[in-house]
Amino acid sequence: MKINEIKVIVASPGRNFVTVKVITDDGLYGIGDGTVNGREKAVVAYLEDHVIPTLIGKDPMRTEDIWQYLYKGAYWRRGPITMAAIGAIDMALWDIKAKAAGMPLYQLLGGRSRDKVMVYKHVGGLEISEVVEGVLALREAGLEAIRAQVSIPGLPPIYGTGPSTDQAAGGMVRPMPTEEVWATHKYLPLVPKLFEKLRDAVGWDVHLLHDVHHRLTPIEAARLGKDLEPYRLFWLEDAIPAELQEGFRIIRQHTTQPLAVGEVFNSVFDLTTLITEQLIDYIRVTSVHAGGVTGLKKIFDFASIYHVRSACHGPMDVSPVAMGCNIHVDVAISNFGIQEFTGYTDATREMFPYTWSYDRGYLQPGEAPGHGVDIDEAVAAKYPYAPAYLPIARLEDGTMTSW
Ligand code: CS2
Ligand code: MG
Question: Within a domain: residue 378?
Answer without folding.
Answer: no
